[in-house]
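Hi P.,

Sorry for the delay on this. The queue was packed all week, but I finally got your sequence through. Input first:
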Amino acid sequence: MNRRRRALLYGLAAAVASLAGGRLTQLAFARPGSTSSDEILVAIFLRGGVDGLSLVAPYGDANYNDLRPNIRLAAPGSGPNAALDLDGQFGLHPTAAPLAELFQQQHLAVVHAAGLTSDTRSHFDAMDYMERGTPGARNTNSGWLTRHLLSTNSSGPLPVIAVASLIPGSLLASPLAVAIPDPRRFGLPGHWYYLDSQRRALRHAYNGDTWLHEAGMQTLNALDVVESANPGDYEPEFGAVYPQNDFGDALMTVAQMVKLGLGLQVATADLGGWDTHEYQGDNGEGYLAYMMEVLALGLYALYTDLTNFTNRLTVVVMSEFGRRLRENANHGTDHGHGNVMLVLGGHVNGGVVYANPWPGLEPGALDQGTDLAITTDYRRVLSEILVRRLANPNLGQVFPGYTGYTPFNIVQGADLPINYGGSGRVYLPSVSR
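Then the structure:
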């Protein structure tokens, strides 16, 4: 092989490997013999710290109304931009009306005063802690979803995708994860005339039994199947209409990959832009109202499009932290603490705001005197989904140090005997054959 062809092959091999997992120095691969369920988990991260007190507002609380004179939501029925009542205490943002419909149909549950127990207000640290599954520490070399997949021996042609250009922290060190920012452009680079030869050469190069060979072959197989499905011709079903933006495109990609029948078990997607320090919008209008609408329309379209899969589908939505109770001088909100999580699916016990207990917004009940306190560790919600829906009782491996599994009854399913053992570390096999 001459120098130029060798350089081309090595370059393509590197491109394939990067699609397969991102951080190649920390990849590991699943043990043989899959014990995973056929459930589908979609994890959506709202990056920037969504204002949970606007998404699901405690509209009747005097402290909420007094400390948010401009950005508060009015009580249900009191105006055109009033909150949409959920249970007599909490109201949904009016532009998130599609979520109210799912809530009323008991497919959507809200968990309030939830979040990351670390008291950091740093976006970077909070996202990292949350996605590793270790609040306040970086004592793992992998993400919580990576450890879930490894602890259930998940496998298949395409068990996990990240609809993004890069693999997120929740899939750190995953050999199974494939980044698919756009299925229409998911393919090998190069001239069409040489693509068949390139594929044969790459399959020969990845014909081995190390983690790197496995990751490369996983991606090559995914490339073949996704390209053969003509993703550019995809048409949503059941009248689903995705918002015409990156978030809508990402969720439509998730639906496409589910319907390809490749054994997809986990998908991740992001919606950024929630860092609303300035002019987030008064009286239920403005920038934040637009963002709430994008989120609601996207989730509603995904759930509608996957009507034939809802009995296998669970969607969880989270953010790194909430916003301050008091609005700032710029009619925005600064970094806070307690927040909202959303859980959507065919086996969700929806139509309920789970706030057990709701800490209230009295000055003495606030975290550090300024923020909504956290009474529900976000890992409690995720653990219930793992155990009851994904049949994974290995909580010690997925969330090292977290004990005392106590389900809310947010989702239906069996409570398996919990295994609290495991360090959360992923041990990296040698690259050499």
